[in-house]
Amino acid sequence: xxxxxxxxxxxxxxxxxxxxxxxxxxxxxxxxxxxxxxxxxxxxxxxxxxxxxxxxxxxxxxxxxxxxxxxxxxxxxxxxxxxxxxxxxxxxxxxxxxxxxxxxxxxxxxxxxxxxxxxxxxxxxxxxxxxxxxxxxxxxxxxxxxxxxxxxxxxxxxxxxxxxxxxxxxxxxxxxxxxxxxxxxxxxxxxxxxxxxxxxxxxxxx
Length: 206
Ligand SMILES: NC(=O)CC[C@H](N)C(=O)O
What we know:
InterPro entries: Class_I_gatase-like, GATASE, Imidazole-glycPsynth_HisH. Pathway: Amino-acid biosynthesis; L-histidine biosynthesis; L-histidine from 5-phospho-alpha-D-ribose 1-diphosphate: step 5/9. The chain has 5 helices and 14 strands. It is an alpha/beta fold. The strands form 3 sheets. An 8-stranded mixed beta sheet has the order 2-1-3-4-14-13-12-9, with helices on both faces. The chain has a 4-stranded mixed beta sheet with strand order 6-5-7-11, covered by helices on one side. It starts with a strand and ends with a helix. The model has no long low-confidence stretch (mean pLDDT 94). The site of glutamine has 13 residues, from strand 10.
């Protein structure tokens, strides 16, 4: 039985590449506006397209049920914007927005000559930290990014891999079970991205 995964649609961008990536990774993805039946889900994905403020406003409408689903055993995967929404707050377009605060800290603007960062960057594990999403992936592999903001407290124990863009070193992979996230887009990162999704799906109860 394929694990059931809710893909929360809060942004305006195309989420169907993450839906097909999850299906290829062995899950049964269902696009939802909000989490209504917390016990129904083995996994919840916060996809990575859209603006922080709009997404956080929509997501707060179902933060309670999302938290209940995690308490009932669902695993969370935040992708790009979705990872950013896991933290306490984010700053985008000069405004302050509030995330789900599942992990402490804020998302900040990258320091670089050219933004957004659109393209492939190397992802390096943080030495000594277990990174289940990167199992079977070579250290220094390239993953695809589209962002201007990131979580930069790479010294925190839940950051298990990092990338650098411009002058900013930032979290590429975050793991604090049942919360997982990637700043890159695994669904747009070829075979190594597919492996990341397979690793996450494998964590879900059957
Ligand atoms: N892909 C995205 O939606 C990017 C997330 C966020 N808007 C950022 O610029 O970092």
